[in-house]
Amino acid sequence: MSAQPHSYAADDPETALKYAIQHIKGNRVQIVEGIIEPVSPTWGHEKAITRIRRQIEPTTDKLGCVIGAGNVDLPGTANWYVPDMAVVPEELEDAEAVVPDQTLLIVEVTSDSNGDTDRVVKRRRYAEYGAPLYLIVDRQEHTCTLFSAPSRLGYSQTQGPLPFGTPIRLPAPFNLDLDTSKFAART
Fold first, then answer.
1. For residue 8, what pLDDT is reported?
2. What is the DSSP string of the chain?
3. pLDDT at residue 5 above 60?
4. What domains does the chain contain, in order, with CATH numbers?
């Protein structure tokens, strides 16, 4: 079995690394602070994302947006994220990657293995790169937290952490209350 060579112009290691991880066959990976991590969401992740998607889809359709788990680049860093869900304008649907300030909402669902990454590292980086809304569904703490008003120093507004079952308000352009009552795992 021979690998097909890929052509690219990379004058720096950041570009080469980001190109390489996009061409790993059979696996999706992200780079978090220079560490390559496989992206393999659990069914619990998918359950929470599905519930969010169903609630915001009518609004995103009206806004002309796409919902998905596409690539998010943080230029100038060794970071290439694959969030659990992002909402982006429809005109970006063919982009290989977007930068956080091109999104309307980014959602991460925590797991035992990545909870601190989502709570601390990604929160800081998404704010630094201007993601307007960052929602963390924390399955370990059974809470949701929405961060908004990003700056290079972090988010200046926080809603939560709110326990599952408490609605969380998604501000403009969504202007809706997100039902979080069914995010918890079955007991």
1. 47
2. --PPP-----SSHHHHHHHHHTT-TT--EEEETTEEEE----HHHHHHHHHHHHHHHHHHHHHTEEEE--EEEETTTTEEE--SEEEEEGGGTT-SEE-GGG-SEEEEE--TTTHHIIIIIIHHHHHHTT-SEEEEEETTTTEEEEEEEEETTEEEEEEEEEETTS-EEE-TTT-EEEP-TT-SPP-
3. no
4. 13-178 (3.90.1570.10)
